Amino acid sequence: MLEETHRAARNLAETTELGSPGQRTAEILATAPLDVGPLLGPVLDGDRAALEREAVRLQLEAGPLAQILDLALQPFLWEAAAQLAKLTDLDRWDRGYCPVCGAWPGLAGLVGPEKRRVLRCVRCAAAWSWGVLLCPYCGNDDHRRLRVLLEEGTSERIDVCEECHGYVKAVSAYTSVSAAQLIAEDVATADLDVIATDGGYKRPGDVDVATAGVPRSSRQPRPEGAPS
Ligand SMILES: [Zn+2]
Ligand SMILES: [Zn+2]
Q1: Looking at the structure, do residues 138 and 170 belong to the same domain, yes or no?
Q2: 20: CA distance to ligand 1 center in Å?
Q3: What is the domain extent for residue 16?
Q4: pLDDT at residue 39 in the model
Q5: What's the gap in Å between 142 CA and the centre of ligand 2?
């Protein structure tokens, strides 16, 4: 993991503006004998406050530190997702967050002529099928409160939820794409992120595992006096 951290930091140091705080952090991390173990939990959980505390302790910038550790973790997460996919049917996962690493989906593939929606985790490349009329974030399953931005019939679209204002961009996919292709696809569809955020939609922050993607209609409280 330390080797991967050094590699990710070297890449970032070479591609970031010279003298910027990010570049300085990357340069330090490219050779530092850092104990990455305690940092992995906060990175995986997206625990920004814990990362910021660690960044202060290490006298580094929190943003680049998180970015480098995320990149360093990716090869391990890809391997974990590939191994898990052999052991269990990830496609049947029924929550809105990634079954392997816990992140929100980064995009969706619309697979085959029937355009089956398959959510993809951009961090670990895990894939799982998901209904069109269900928000993976808040579990909204009221079709009147779910919309599609962009013309239907094109190869790209954005599914949005009027309850949590979350969005998931989607692209046509005829086969399952590799982790590297997935990252390229995510970058190539940045225009969809702009359209969605300009429209007031966002990718949510923290994952609430109790509600993420659990259909609201199935967790509404029973009316008073109803038999249990
Ligand atoms: Zn994942
Ligand atoms: Zn929602």
Answers
A1: yes
A2: 30
A3: 2-85
A4: 84
A5: 10
CA of residue 89 to ligand 1 center, whole Å: 15
Q: What is the pLDDT of residues 145-167, one digit of tens each?
A: 999 998 666 788 999 999 999 99
Residue ranges of the chain with pLDDT lower than 70? 151-153, 174, 220-228
The residue from 85, 114, 133 where one domain ends is 85
Instruction: Determine the distance separating the centroid of ligand 1 and the alpha carbon of 55, expressed in angstroms.
Output: 24
How many Å lie between the centroid of ligand 2 and the Cα of residue 108? 15
Residue indicated by tokens 């954005």: 158
Closest among 45, 79, 170 to 119, alpha carbons compared:
170
CATH code for the domain of 212: 3.90.1670.10
Distance 223 CA to ligand 1 centre (A): 37
**pLDDT tens track for 191-205:** 999 999 999 999 998
φ, ψ of residue 151 to 5 degrees: the values are -60, 135
Q: Are residues 155 and 170 in the same domain?
A: yes
Do 190 and 116 lie in one domain? The reply is yes
Q: Could you give the count of Cα atoms lying within 13 Å of 146 in the half-sphere of its Cβ?
A: 16
Q: Give pTM, 2 decimals.
A: 0.81
Domain presence at residue 225: no
User: How many angstroms does the Cα of residue 148 sit away from the middle of ligand 1?
Assistant: 24
Question: Which listed ligand is nearest to 161 at the C-alpha?
Answer: 2
Alpha-carbon gap, residue 101 to 77, rounded angstroms: 7
Domain count, the chain: 2
For residues 66 and 172, membership in a common domain is answered with no
* Structure token digits, residue 175: 């086969």
